[in-house]
Peptidase S9 family protein (Kineobactrum sediminis), 679 residues
Amino acid sequence: MFRARKITVGPLLALLAALSAAPVWAASPFTASDVFQLSYASSPVLDSKGKQVLYLRHTMDIMRDQPRSNLWRVNTDGSDHRPVTTGPGNVSSPALAPDGNRVAYVRRDDTGPQLFVSWLDSGQVAQLTRLAEAPANLVWSPDGRSVAFRMLVPEPAPTMGELPDKPADAEWAEPPVVVERTVYRSDGSGIKPHGYQHVFVIPAAGGSPRQVTTGDYNHSGSIGWAADSKVLFVSANRNPDWQQDTKNTDLYRVVLATGDIEALTDRKGPDGQVAVAPDGRSLAYVGWDDRGLGYHRNRLYIMAADGSDRKELLADLDRNIQSPRWSSDGQRLFFHYDDRGDTVLASTDLSGRMQVLARGLGGKQLGRPYAGADIAVGGAGSFAYTAGNAGTPADIVFGRLGSDQRQQLTHLNANFLDYRDLGEISELAVTSSFDDRDIQAWVVTPPDFDPARQYPMILEIHGGPFANYGPRFAAELQLFAAAGYVVLYVNPRGSTSYGEEFANLIHHNYPGEDYDDLMSAVDALLADGYVNPEQLFVTGGSGGGTLTAWIIGKTDRFRAAVVAKPVINWASFVLTADNSPYFARYWFGEMPWENPEAYWERSPLSLVGNVTTPTLLLTGENDLRTPMAETEQYYQALKLRGIDSAMVRMPGAGHLIARRPSQLAGKVAAILGWFERYR
């Protein structure tokens, strides 16, 4: 006979519960190969009933080393999440028809980018164009019968003299290229094609596109339709000196039947991002009065559709307003702005009473924690936006006016990043040693962080310089943390999201006291005790590369530095970068030959005689924003001085080195490899 035994089940059940709750797989570190697994959402579009969102889903193609994008749809209750397009191509410029059933977008065929329309109820697809040039910025007419877009209208390239006739089948060199334009190159695309961007309309049922703007001007800005579908509103720079004064855009009214163009604004400064009220009577737009400053904030305006009754809304909001959108009833405007390293969605009535609707917008920049967000407005007070956080790139979030509930509709990286052990981000309070200003900074700690230990530190500096970092997902910083570094990043003076005065502290003074802000942040972090003061490293890209070179000319506290895509000599930069008129006008106010001392005293090359820090230079070979010659100057200067230095040239890369996933990984590998030499 078996004797029953009393068993205490409490501890056993607790153990079983703990085991069942434990993950089957322990979280693994974030690695460079994980970059190819990242996804993010952008470009949300809402229907007129507030029932459905379309958006672009971006992924990485590991076999072609390229980002890819397809169009997806999801109901605003989170159901019926499925693709509209699939495959290895790229979709851009999605635009939903007023009937909510047709969506237009740009996608490549065998000849190049073309305009397509998909029917959401049936899945049928129609290719509307077979164009020689790429259409962009698609906008449906309110009656649903037409789509407006912009496209290059080519012009013959200039020639100089006459060449002899080429014999049949002869293999000659390419003919000489004649350059007469002030701005003739663009980073990321190279030599600009000859011609002008114009606005076209095409029947939504197919047919020939018709050009509706004329003249030797680029109509590259926003497009809006009048309520009667007979008039377009466009933003363009049609001023006589548009090649020199590149920012001076205005709003124009274009009558489709006649092609008549009427200017609605005429101030000195840009006007753009036009949005037409649902009843067609009013326009909203953003712009600023040009005061020749390095930074101007966008201001929000409304006016009648004939250009009368202009009025600024929210004049006291000292932030850069972006992407105005009308509510479906025409009573409110939605927009977003950056605020202290965060991005905010807000709305205002037409009297200027503002309501904050959401924070944490962004997540579209995978490499470094820059701002960048998209918003959409639909019917019944609905809105959608891209939002991310320190642990994940952008997803789509939905909400309605009058409700505090926000529903995240996508979780694009949950099956991946939820199983990665990421570095944690915390904010660091900093007081500048220069003038006691509050400076915002953040710290990323390694996944296995122990505050009782001491870690090497990387100071990573943002570019711009008029830009901002925040507590956002950043693959590069996570890879630094996974390698065992504490990462410090800062919004020094000159950063955006703190108002015009703070940004313009570096007006004609960059680099300057932003150096003190950065060093104060390093000192504040060292005071916490978990960073080894003998293991400090510094890097940054673009403006951050410029500041890195400036820093090592001012101090030897860093064991090694990586100067990425920098400006080293302001005179050579202004005369070789892809937008010389802008940089000369706003960043200096004088030409290099008019005040060479001002250019030289702000150039990191002027301090190269002080440098003792081992320095790696890293730049894309096709960079036209901060051209390779800037990097080469500094590299040669360091070598001539006998400083331990090296140069990494990224083949085929422009200023955005991390556009291709493998080059993001290659950039991080080079930075970590250089720093490891000196640990």
DSSP finds eleven helices and 40 strands in the chain. Residues 1-22 have pLDDT under 50 and may be disordered.
